Amino acid sequence: MTDGWALLGRAADLAEPGQWITGWLGAVPVVVRNFAGTPRGFRNICSHRFAQMLTAPTGKGPLRCPYHAWVYDADGVPKAIPFNDTDFHLGDADRQALALPAVAVLVTGGLVFTHLQPDADPAPVMGWPLTDGPFPQHLPDGSLIGPDAAILERRSSQRGCGC
Amino acid sequence: MLNYDQPPPRRRLLPAHWFYAADSFARESEAMSHRLPWRYAGLAGDSLVDGVEVEACGGFLFRRQRMDAPALADWLGPFATRLDLMSPALSAPVGADAVEFAANWKILVENTLDDFHGSTVHPQTIHPAVDADWRQHLHTERHGPHSHSSWKLSAATAQWWEKLVARGGLARFAAQDRYDHTYIFPDLYVASFHGAMVIVHRVVPLAVDRTRLEWRTFLPSHNPGDRKRDAFRRSLAGQLALSARQVIEEDRPLCEMVQAGRAGATGPGMLGWREQRIGDVHDALATLLDI
Ligand code: FES
Ligand SMILES: [Fe+2]
């Protein structure tokens, strides 16, 4: 049982501010990004017209939607909205209401895990034997890891059925 | 220009299942076939299914789907004149193409009605082709679910067209230094450039998450039969066909990313003042679908 937790990627890919990792929790695209040293996770879906925002598995740069360039901050709030003054007229409260839904993030054993419920209990992942062999090791979410947090297969790299 | 004295209403977007659930797609298709008064059926000269009652607006054919449909001219409103105006161009087809999108048809429609993704999605194609101060010169007109946006071309693009018109002996249906985009709900949109080239697009839903965009290009000339000019026009048509396809290929991944995100979105979405054309389509569908 995964209890909804899934392996998203390697902590090394989040080491620097601005770095991010994407993946899928079932049918939901998610992203975890290093915001000034703190990893924060969100649904990777723009609040404007619902585009999946970042598509590469890993990268570095702002959490920006490629469709109309909305940029989101560490709270998932759209902080830059091109043409806001003329076309959207969104004040602070409106922007807060458009914050991306957060997902839970847990970094442990050199790996990054996520869960759709932002307050999900991390205990199940803590019970996964991530650092002891034998390797390769299957994780309960179906991923396969090797020694030194090497990811051999990552279940969250593919869209799931959402069922 | 955004000519609003006061804020337009915040519009509601259709719930997500209309974008990914097969049974919703079936229900919507049924409503489109039986509840919508008129539906685009093709162009004059197309072979249509026998027995289908069509009416023409210039060279554009529409199928009556309901006995109590308003007159076609009333359904099309001010855009009947526009379709009529462009119709002479339809006698000069120069190409046809299609691209399939892994996205619901409504996402393609939202995309084509979206007047402000040029700088982000088409930075090398559409964006430089229109006037840098496009916001000042953009005119939008709406009638029910149909709408029209008209853009001023950049001076360089307008000059380029002037030269093409002269060299190719192109026949303009109107002397306009504009890019015009006319949308007729639900599946027809017509783009025209400089009053010379016309591209007729049709959005064909294949499945809830699959759509084919078909388009046909028209480029009329004053003296068909002039070998030199015909050759020039053919090579120009080939070049323009490549550009048209490139623009579509720039839009396709964005549409597919919306499809990928749509099912997992929890918020209501947000339409800005300039996105009222999109709101009109969602409203029309909500009425059609009784939701
Ligand atoms: S859909 Fe993301 S900015 Fe518009
Ligand atoms: Fe586009």
**On the 0-100 scale, what is the average pLDDT of chain B?**
94
Q: Assign the structural class of chain B, choosing from mainly alpha, mainly beta, alpha/beta, alpha+beta, or little secondary structure.
A: alpha+beta
The CATH topology of chain A corresponds to Rieske Iron-sulfur Protein
Number of strands of chain B: 10
Strand content of chain B: 15-25%
Task: Describe, in plain words, how this protein is organized in 3D.
- The complex is a heterodimer of chains A (163) and B (291).
- Chain A has helices spanning 84-88, 92-97, 123-126, and strands at 6-10, 19-25, 28-35, 38-43, 58-60, 63-64, 71-72, 78-80, 102-108, 111-115, 137-138, 144-145, 151-153.
- With 163 residues, chain A is mainly β.
- Chain A has three helices and 13 strands; from the N terminus they run ββββββββααββαβββ.
- Chain A has a single domain, classed as Rieske Iron-sulfur Protein (3-layer Sandwich).
- Chain A starts with 5 loop residues before the first strand and ends in a 10-residue tail after the last strand.
- Chain B has one domain: Naphthalene 1,2-dioxygenase Alpha Subunit, Chain A, domain 1.
- Chain B is built from eleven helices and ten strands.
- Chain B is globular.
- The complex binds FE2/S2 (inorganic) cluster and fe (ii) ion.
- Residues 46, 48-49, 51, 65, 67-68, 70 of chain A line the site of FE2/S2 (inorganic) cluster.
Features:
heterodimer; A: 163 residues; mainly beta; Rieske Iron-sulfur Protein; seven-stranded antiparallel β-sheet; three-stranded antiparallel β-sheet; 13 strands; 9% helix; elongated; B: 291 residues; alpha+beta; Naphthalene 1,2-dioxygenase Alpha Subunit, Chain A, domain 1; 11 helices; binds FE2/S2 (inorganic) cluster; binds fe (ii) ion
